[in-house]
Every structure is written in C-alpha cells, then in structure tokens.
Design goal:
Elements: E1 16-20, E2 28-34, E3 39-44, E4 50-53, E5 68-70, E6 76-80, E7 98-102, E8 108-114, E9 121-126, E10 132-136, E11 141-145, E12 152-158, E13 173-178, E14 184-188, E15 191-193, E16 199-201, E17 206-210, H1 212-215, E18 225-228, E19 242-247, E20 253-257, E21 262-265, E22 271-275, E23 289-294, E24 303-307, E25 311-314
Length: 316
Amino acid sequence: MRINASTFPATVVGTLSILCINSPKADAILLIGNSDSNNIIVFDEQVGNFLGNFTTPGNGGLRTPDDLTFGPDGNLYVSSGGDNALSLLDPSYPQDSAVLRFSSTGEFLGVAASGNGLTRPYGNAFSPDGNLYVSSFRTNQILRFNGITGEFLGVFASDNNNGLGTLNGLNGPNSLLFGPDGSLYVATEGTANNASGDLVFAYDSQVLRYSSAQVAGIEPTTAPSVFISQPSTLPESEFVSLLGLALAPNNDILVSDFAGGIRRYNLAGDLVDTLSTNYTDTIPSSNFIGSLTFGSGSSSDNLYRTHLGSIHWLAV
C-alpha cells in the first residue's frame, strides 16, 4: 500500500474529511476543520491549493471543530465546542458541546446531538445500524444518539469511574472507528479528570475495542479489550498520544500519534509498520499531528493527515 503524507499550514488546526466531486481535474476536495477561525475550509486534494471556506466562521455555533464525518444521509457531522483548558467544576465552562449537521454544500442544518452529559466532543461515527456514536472526551464516555432524530439513546460506554479514569479503560476517548467486523475501535489519550475537575494524563494511551456483541447490546460494555497497548515512543517523539484512526483499503487500521508518526496494525492488533511524519527532520520533531483520512477514486490509496488537527474527504 502506498501512503502519501500531506502537509498543511501550521495555522490549520482541526479535523479532516474528503468530498468527492464530479470534475475532470480532481477526484475530490479536502475539508479541514480550522479551530483557529471556527470554520471548515477547502483544499484541492491533488495539489493542495486553498479553495476557500466550506462554512463561514461560527456558522450554527461552530466552535473549535474536531471530527468531521459524513453520515448515511450524505450530510457532514462536525464535533464542536467544549474546552480542555478549564476545570469541569468551573462555572464558566462552556455549555456548547454538540455535533452539528451541515449539508454537502456547507449549509447549516441544525444540531444533530447535544446534551445528556456530552462534554468536549471529539470522535463521532455512525454504526452499521445508523446510530451516531460520539466521544465525550472530558467525561470519559461514548454517547449514542439516533442518527436521524438526534434522540439520546444512552451512554454506550464509560470509564466506569465517573470520569476519573480506570486502568485499561475509556480514558480520554478521541477518534471512533467501526471496523469491518462490526467492532468499535476507540483511540484513548490516557486522560482523566482529577477531584478538582482538571484534566490530567494519568493513564496509558491505547486503542480499545468494543466487540460487535457489545455494540449490539448482547454483552456489557464495561470491559472493552485493549486492541493496542501504549507503544514505545518513536525515535522522533518524546511521548505517546494516540489520536486519529483510519481504515485502510486492505482493512489495516492506521493510528496517528499526536507526538508524531503513524502506526499501521492489522485486525489482529499486530504492528505492521510505522510512518514518520517528521518533515522537518528535527529531534524531537514537534510536528504534532491530528486525524487521518484516506482519499477516494484514483487517490484511494493515499493517506492524508493534518498538522495539529483533523481532515476529511467530501464527495458530491
């Protein structure tokens, strides 16, 4: 498999997606959530030229956009709001955590999921049955919503410790990925809240797996399996913080490390290889990276990643 790591300006900090377009010049365009300006911007997927805004800044209350996901309805779902810097007990903690819905042309279509304890949403993903799963990063939970109506369907999983973290548990959930076997894979950053409500890095960064039986509600979600234990730091990095997940065309799972580098695993959890993202050739690289996405069409074997954020393809 050929992997091409694309580099974007350091000011672009957010999520990433792909939109395929009917054009003789390109298979798709790249959508990137820009946390600095609270909007989603567009780049040409072939040469990286900036093409303008997909959404206007703050449209629909969009703030610090994170994961970008296209739903079964063809609309774009964007994790928005929350805060990592403040204590959860701070009365000024923002109450705007939500997943927002936009059309394939950038029109705001309303709030797709909010409330019910959702706090600083990161990853969001649609299950095979069409329900929307959302990582509530600051409360160490994964919440489940009806993908059409937004009705809250309950807490799918938690750290079983009221957000304070637990060994090999759901500590700082970030990206979500449904695998070909129906299992849900979750990248965890190893964070939890302390008694004062502040964010601390108290646990290993891992990738957890909730089996298809757990997703279906046949088995409890209190004990996910550890799909990937915290790996050793890469030569270019000083720490490990697993963040983005992407499913390769051959069903391997790629995992981005915020500290730098991408690792590729097969579905048995075996490490296949690693990809350096140290484009500055410095030690440590400090080239912090975010989410991952594969291209489409003639670029379906290409892997795209953001610097300090997330990215996605869009197809129309």
